[in-house]
Amino acid sequence: MNFNELFADYPDVVSFKDMRVMLGGKNKPLGRTTAYKLLKENKIKNIRKIGREYRIPKNSIINYLLNN
Predict the structure, then answer these.
(1) How far is residue 5 from each of residues 19, 33, 34, 42, 56, measured CA to CA in Å?
(2) Alpha carbon of 38 to those of 46, 51, 62: distances in Å?
(3) What is d(CA 58, CA 4) in angstroms, rounded to the nearest whole number?
C-alpha cells in the first residue's frame, strides 16, 4: 500500500486528531488512549508538542505503519 498517496491530502505535520483518523479511519478514529500511548512510548517518532497540542510529522506515521 502506498501511504504517501493515501495521505496526500494531509499536511506534512499533522495534529493529534488527524493522526487518530489516519490510523483508524474517518468513521472510527483510533482511540484517544491508544493514540496517546503510541506517542508516550515513542512508537511514532519525532513528536513535537507545541504548547498543549501535539504536532506529528506525517512521515513518522507512515514509518510506524510500514514497520508494524
Answers:
(1) 16, 27, 25, 25, 18
(2) 12, 19, 13
(3) 9
Cβ contact 29:38 at 8 Å: no
Alpha-helix residue ranges (DSSP H) falling in 1-68: 3-6, 16-24, 32-40, 58-67
Quote the number of domains for the chain. Answer: 1
Question: Tell me, what DSSP letter sits at residue 46?
Answer: S
Tens of pLDDT along 2-52? Answer: 888 889 999 999 999 999 999 999 899 999 999 999 998 999 976 777 788
What's residue 62's pLDDT? 94
Residues spanned by the domain of 38: 3-67
